[in-house]
């Protein structure tokens, strides 16, 4: 139990739609990262937020965007969904100030795009 | 892009045996971490080893790191059916701010 929760657990969308995934981090964890994990692959870094500002981004297009809120919750938004966006989306949080590089993962949201 | 490559991709052993998984990576790192994932759910942190460390233990887990070969291994001793999961290595380039870069994982099956 990492104390990180995600919603919803599963989601089905059609191509072209928009989706919002949510994550609630542990109290005091002010760094949150989002990862995309395609079937049979390792997680790929999407972006990271620190103190409500994006401060790192992987090789993902601008239609992937995020928000982080003062209450340690965050969102991942994906516009204009494509079939290849079907994946498990994981959020991970860390304590403030990068005290540790260990990240605490939520259970993930499985997104299916038809 | 993937940094690490785990080997083997899949491993099947009997309960009580030891399981060894290997990870190779491409660039210099600050630390390397191993995570476990059960049935496509969230990842659980197992152990972190820093670039100036060569070996680390945690319960039934033993991790080694060879920075000259850019490789690491994870040994699980006296495996149990509950150890059945996918195991991923993940590297961190600069401590404090850079993301985890994962390999593709090793799928471990422990047969009772």
Concise summary:
The complex is a heterodimer of chains A (114) and B (112). Chain A is mostly beta strands and 114 residues long.
List keywords for this structure.
heterodimer; A: 114 residues; mainly beta; seven-stranded mixed sheet; four-stranded antiparallel sheet; 51% strand; globular; B: mainly beta; five-stranded antiparallel sheet
Describe this structure in words.
The complex is a heterodimer of chains A (114) and B (112). Chain A is mainly beta. In chain A, 0% of the residues lie in helices and 51% in strands. Chain A has strands at 5-7, 10-13, 19-24, 31-37, 44-50, 53-57, 64-68, 73-78, 87-94, 104-105, 109-113. Chain A is globular, with a radius of gyration of 13 Å. Chain B has 112 residues and is mainly beta. In chain B, 0% of the residues lie in helices and 54% in strands. Chain B contains no helices and eleven strands. In chain B, the strands form two sheets. In chain B, strands 2, 4, 5, 9, 10 and 11 form a six-stranded mixed sheet that branches. Chain B has a five-stranded antiparallel sheet with strand order 1-3-8-7-6, with no helix packed on it. The relative contact order of chain B is 0.35. The model of chain B has no long low-confidence stretch (mean pLDDT 92). The chains are: A mainly beta (114), B mainly beta (112).
What is the helix fraction of residues of chain B, given as a range?
under 10%
Straight-line N-to-C gap of chain B: 36 Å
Q: Which residue ranges of chain A are poorly predicted, with pLDDT under 50 across at least 5 consecutive positions?
A: none
User: Which range does the strand content of chain B fall in?
Assistant: over 45%
Q: How would a textbook summarize the main sheet of chain A?
A: 7 strands, mixed
Annotate the secondary structure layout:
The complex is a heterodimer of chains A (114) and B (112).
Chain A: E1 5-7, E2 10-13, E3 19-24, E4 31-37, E5 44-50, E6 53-57, E7 64-68, E8 73-78, E9 87-94, E10 104-105, E11 109-113
Parallel strand pairs in A: 2-11
Antiparallel strand pairs in A: 1-3, 3-8, 4-5, 4-9, 5-6, 7-8, 9-10, 9-11
Chain B: E1 5-7, E2 10-14, E3 19-24, E4 31-37, E5 43-50, E6 55-58, E7 61-66, E8 71-76, E9 85-92, E10 101-102, E11 106-111
């Amino acid at each position: 139990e990492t104390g990180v929760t995600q919603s919803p657990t599963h989601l089905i969308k059609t191509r072209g739609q928009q989706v919002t995934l949510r994550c609630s981090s542990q109290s005091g964890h002010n760094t949150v990262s989002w990862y995309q994990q395609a079937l049979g692959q390792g997680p790929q870094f999407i972006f990271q937020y620190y103190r409500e500002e994006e401060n790192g981004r992987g090789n993902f297009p601008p239609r992937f965007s995020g928000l982080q809120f003062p209450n340690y919750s965050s969102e991942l938004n994906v516009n204009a969904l494509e079939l290849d966006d079907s994946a498990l989306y994981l959020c991970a949080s860390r304590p403030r100030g990068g005290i540790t590089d260990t990240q605490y993962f939520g259970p993930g949201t499985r997104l299916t795009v038809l | 892009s993937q940094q690490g490559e785990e080997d083997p991709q899949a491993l099947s052993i009997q309960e009580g045996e030891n399981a060894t998984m290997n990870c190779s990576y491409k660039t210099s790192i600050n630390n390397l971490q191993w995570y476990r994932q059960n049935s496509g759910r969230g990842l659980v942190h197992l152990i972190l080893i820093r670039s100036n460390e060569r070996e680390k233990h945690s319960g039934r887990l033993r991790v080694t790191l060879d920075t000259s070969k850019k490789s690491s291994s994870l040994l699980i001793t006296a495996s149990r059916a509950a150890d059945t999961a996918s195991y991923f290595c993940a590297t961190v380039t600069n401590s404090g701010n850079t993301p985890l870069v994962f390999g593709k994982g090793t799928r471990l099956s422990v047969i009772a």
